[in-house]
Amino acid sequence: MPKVLIVVTSHSEIDPEHKTGLWLEEYSIPRKAFRDAGFDVVTASPNGGQAPLDPRSLEGVQPDQDAVAELARTLTLQEAGDASQYDAIFLPGGHGTMFDLAGNQPIKTLLSEFDAQGKIVAAVCHGPAAFVDAIKAAEPHTLVHGRRITCFTDAEERAVKLDALMPFLLESKLREQGANVVTAADWADHVEVDGNWITGQNPQSSGSTAKAVINALKARV
Questions:
Q1: What is the fold, at CATH topology level, of the domain defined by 3-220?
Q2: Cα(first)–Cα(last) distance of the chain, in Å?
Q3: Closest CA to 144 of 184, 101, 103, 115
Q4: Which of 95, 116, 154, 218 is the most buried (most CB within 10 A)?
Q5: 21 neighbors 94 (Cβ within 8 angstroms)
Q6: 16 DSSP 8-state letter
Q7: How many C-beta atoms surround the C-beta of residue 47 within 10 A?
Q8: Going residue by residue through the chain (221 aa), what tens digit of pLDDT does each one get?
Q9: CB neighbours (10 Å) of residue 61?
């Protein structure tokens, strides 16, 4: 059965007044969907160990305790291995990704490997921050150049009033790097599929993005 590598953020703070981390449902919903489909799932993060959770993602919800337990023992990227061991990579969001996945060279190398091998590259919400400055293998282009993708939009960032605290606006940055960023209304369930690339716009798109990944992988079996 297919094997999916999920990479989550290790970054826990925007500033002393704003805690952040992984947005839980963007991990727990896809992880459950992948496991229910019979897939093998491995979870990694830049630092390994406990992955921080954005406190706001826990408000008014009953967390998936199995997912929470898995997030307490994430592998490092080095321990997770390389693209040859997996069929897909999936990047959940949370504002933490804007600070560590956006500047992490090992994850960019890993993404380039997945893409060069024609494997599924998937992300939701702020997960595409990992695409920033990633370069195509053996080509002088960014990894997103010419790709049709979506991500947490500039409008959504302003709506949650965190735009001024971000190192950049994700939609704008990906456009600058050559991506064709397609957006829907704020908080709409929206997924874009472009070849082996699958992206979702926001937390509301978590389940649909996971379903698109499952369908793509099953089509390859």
A1: Rossmann fold (3.40.50)
A2: 8
A3: 115
A4: 95
A5: yes
A6: T
A7: 15
A8: 999 999 999 999 999 999 999 999 999 999 999 999 999 999 999 999 999 999 999 999 999 999 999 999 999 999 999 999 999 999 999 999 999 999 999 999 999 999 999 999 999 999 999 999 999 977 789 999 999 999 999 999 999 999 999 999 999 999 999 999 999 999 999 999 999 999 999 999 999 999 999 999 999 97
A9: 10
